[in-house]
Amino acid sequence: MANRAHRNPGHRSMHVLRKRGKTHRSTDRVPTAPSEVTRQVALVCDCLSLLRALPDKSVQLVLCDPPYNINVADWDTYSDYVSWASIWLREVERVLADTGNLVLFGGLQYQNEAGSGDLLTLLHHLRQHSALRLVNLIVWNYPNGVSAQRFFANRHEEIAWFGKTSMYYFDLDSVREPYDANRRALYLKDKRLRPDSVIKGRNPTNVWQLPRLSGHSKERVGHPTQKPAALIRRLLRALSPPGSHIVDLFAGSGITTRVAIEERRHSLCCDRDPMWKTYLSRQLAQLTAPPPYVLSDALGDALTVSGTAEAARTAGRRRTRTTSQ
Ligand SMILES: C[S@@+](CC[C@H](N)C(=O)[O-])C[C@H]1O[C@@H](n2cnc3c(N)ncnc32)[C@H](O)[C@@H]1O
User: Fold this and answer.
1) Residue 267 and residue 296 in contact, taking contact as beta carbons nearer than 8 Å
2) Is the pTM for the entire model greater than 0.90?
3) Most buried residue, 154, 179, 207, 223, by most Cβ within 10 Å?
4) Hey, which of 272, 277, 280, 286 would you mutate to test ligand 1's pocket, going by the most ligand atoms within 8 Å of its Cβ?
5) Is residue 17 part of a domain?
6) Does residue 181 sit within a domain?
7) 295-309 pLDDT per residue, tens
């Protein structure tokens, strides 16, 4: 009997791409030059000010965890949400390198008031108005959340990952999950499985089970919608090489800057709320023995930083924290 999965359009197109050799880890297409010192730019400004200062195709990864106009806080109100989002989404597409990736956080369940937006609205908009390719819709499944009586209590959010082109960077090996010893031994005996893949570990799939930060989490720095470091780390590792430039347009708690330092990426992050710099200083205080980095509050020559200590020394206004080597 024919395998019905073969009729699934998603599976079919993946099969065609695989045959044409177009699904690849693509880690070999991006120069990966881990820097000695990374440059971390932290700006208090509107996301459009940052984007408009960036040259075309200059960035490897853009993270967007935007407001959804649902009054979570006073930053969460926009009168025409989609029109507003369409402006920064167009700019994101412009600044991404051909190997670049866009990550959009959100939920599908937020559209509850006129004018509010949700991830569905943005996905629909991008499908119609951009050439970005949806690579995965990741389900972030968490065990903790609020209870509900009139519907099933929500335990997931979505993370949409778009590639700028089919050349998007993806390093699966950097985020594989190791099998436990028993399973590994069992799988190594299974002739249908590739031993090298078994040794490297499993693909974490597009369902990620990671807890949300609880109210008492040590990671918390005070921002109401702070994302867990583990989530950001997996995205940075898989979608950007060490030494590349990443952007977070809605920096919030500063978690992206913190993970960028730890994972040796350069970052350009902004939030229009000045409180984010306070949150960021709390993030940096939590770092123990981080790789060396330069923190700057001006864009300056951030995108020309070669990643060398010399480049870091010549950076403009800055604060250097060099860790014990
Ligand atoms: C959902 S939160 C981001 C949380 C962040 N991802 C984290 O894990 O900490 C959205 C953030 O967007 C900021 N924001 C709202 N409108 C903005 C704009 N036009 N430009 C820059 N930041 C904006 C808010 O101040 C808020 O901190």
Assistant:
1) no
2) no
3) 223
4) 272
5) no
6) yes
7) 999 988 777 654 333
